[in-house]
Amino acid sequence: MRTKMNEAIKVTLKDLVDAGVKTTFTKKRMKELGIVVSETKISPGKIRQIRKSSHLSQAVFADLLNVSLSSVRHWEQGLRKPTGPTKVLLELLLKEPHILDYRIRKSKKSIAA
């Protein structure tokens, strides 16, 4: 009976997490239920691929991500690794390349030309 309850809790919790609903489960309890937040890993080559597929220079890509140009250069060269939310954002861009398109607007001057 307990195993069935834990399985039901696990399925429900996973559905809540997938739906973006806030829960009060601790990391330890989630691990006990077999739900683990995956580690985000992104290689220098993948970062370069994301930027190039967006047809952006390193400078514009840095502005888009709100990071320094040197950060983007160092990531692409493998000298440093993105951390925290930036790493997750890059992973999202890999899966959904146009997720930040709303941040790039054409100026009225270039539209009129």
Automatic annotation (TrEMBL):
CDD domains according to UniProt: HTH_XRE (cd00093)
Pfam families from the UniProt entry: HTH_3
Domain HTH cro/C1-type residues, every copy: 47-100
GO molecular function: DNA binding
Transcription regulation is among the record's keywords: yes
Keywords: DNA-binding, Transcription, Transcription regulation
Record carries keyword DNA-binding: yes
InterPro entries the UniProt entry points to: Cro/C1-type_HTH, HTH-type_reg/antitoxin, Lambda_DNA-bd_dom_sf
PANTHER family reported in the protein's UniProt record: ANTITOXIN MQSA, MERR FAMILY BACTERIAL REGULATORY PROTEIN
Protein name listed in UniProt: HTH cro/C1-type domain-containing protein
